[in-house]
Amino acid sequence: APAERFHLIGELDRWMIREVVKLLGxxxxxxxxxxxxxxxLSAVSIREPGLAQYVGDTLREFGVPGRLMCFExxxxxxIVNLQSAGxxxxxxxxxxxxxxxDDFGSGFASFTYLRQLPFDTIKxxxxxxxxxxxxxxxxxxxxxxxxxxxxLDKPVVAECVETAAVAAMLRExxxxxxxxxxxxxxxxx
Length: 189
Description:
It is globular, with a radius of gyration of 17 Å. Helix content is about 45%, strand content about 15%. Helix 1 runs parallel beside helix 2 (about 50-60) and helix 2 (about 50-60) runs parallel beside helix 3 (about 80-95). The longest helix has 24 residues, at about 1-25. It contains 7 helices and 6 strands. The protein is an alpha/beta fold.
């Protein structure tokens, strides 16, 4: 059943890509106001042959510029072939799409992927960010991850920014972006 599960994950990712791109295509007046729309993409899916072609075809079908799309790759331990993952990412980069390494710091493997795959941004796992103002270890880990990202010249996004105190600490560290309830709660489009 693992092969069937992976197939279902791939189908779900393709469905999500199509639905998001279709929605963006129906609202062309928003394209100049949107920096990017992020879609979590299973690392299982990037092994599927033809996914980059599918993304390109879908963008063309609905008239959506690739620059609006950012694919966040999670489950980094599932990336078993760095060469094919890199080729997939390069193909979508040529269309203007971007990539973010999601949940950075949650696994040792993510350091390998950070060096070997062309990620555009790094998202620090919210479990470290949320309480970094009261947990000295988490605060130190966030600082070291930001320093690592700077050494690699990668912009940083902090997840789960829920308080003004944490937002201030992140600004002081030079974190580029924050996402979380402190800034805005989710709402219908």
